[in-house]
Amino acid sequence: MKLSPSKINLFLFTKLPSAWLCGVRLKTINEKECITTVTHKWINQNPFNSMYFAVQAMAAELSTGAIVMKEISGSGEKISMLVQENSSSFHKKAKGKITFNCKDVDLVKENISKCLTNPEGQKFWMTSIAKNETGEIVSEFKFQWTIRKKKNYGNF
């Protein structure tokens, strides 16, 4: 199945409703990058008149995880995926529309190829950079993804 922004946003609505309700949306996914957005509103605010850090984390994780989902889907293999670790840094208050960009598509492709021949799977870090409407960096997120080819137990 070809993953598109509309399909992934429907996935958000049905499987991750808290992200969808907070306004997290996937805007672009292609061979170079994945872009998600979220706008500061009442539903996703913190007491300091900016966006709550966890909402930023949801948008950042989606910008990395959607790439992993897309490349797994394109491989035709059954591969599990999971975030093992994450880290973040915050540079300024997140107000207005915040755009999260991950450009680690080639890194994911490389690790999926390795995963298919390594029974232990692969671990790799992906980065998502968040910018406000004026292009200033608001926050940076890193996620360590683990992928592993699922075992085939025959026709049980």
Explain what the structure shows:
With 156 residues, this protein is of the alpha+beta class. The protein has a single domain (5-149), classed as Thiol Ester Dehydrase, Chain A, CATH 3.10.129. The protein has four helices and six strands. It has a six-stranded antiparallel beta sheet. Helix 3 crosses helix 4 (105-115). The longest helix has 23 residues, at 53-75. The chain is elongated and about 55 Å long. The protein starts with a helix and ends in a 7-residue tail after the last strand.
Task: Name the features.
single chain, 156 residues, alpha+beta, Thiol Ester Dehydrase, Chain A, 6-stranded antiparallel beta sheet, 4 helices, 6 strands, elongated
The residue fraction in helices comes out at 25-40%
Looking at the structure, the CATH topology is: Thiol Ester Dehydrase, Chain A
Structural class: alpha+beta
Q: What gross morphology would you assign?
A: elongated
CATH class: Alpha Beta
Give the end-to-end Cα distance, rounded to a whole number of Å: 25 Å
Question: How is the secondary structure organized here?
Answer:
Elements: H1 5-15, H2 17-21, E1 25-29, E2 34-39, H3 53-75, E3 79-90, E4 97-102, H4 105-115, E5 122-131, E6 137-149
Antiparallel strand pairs: 1-2, 2-4, 3-6, 4-5, 5-6
Describe, in short, the structure shown.
The chain is α+β, with helices and mostly antiparallel strands and 156 residues long. 32% of the residues lie in helices and 33% in strands.
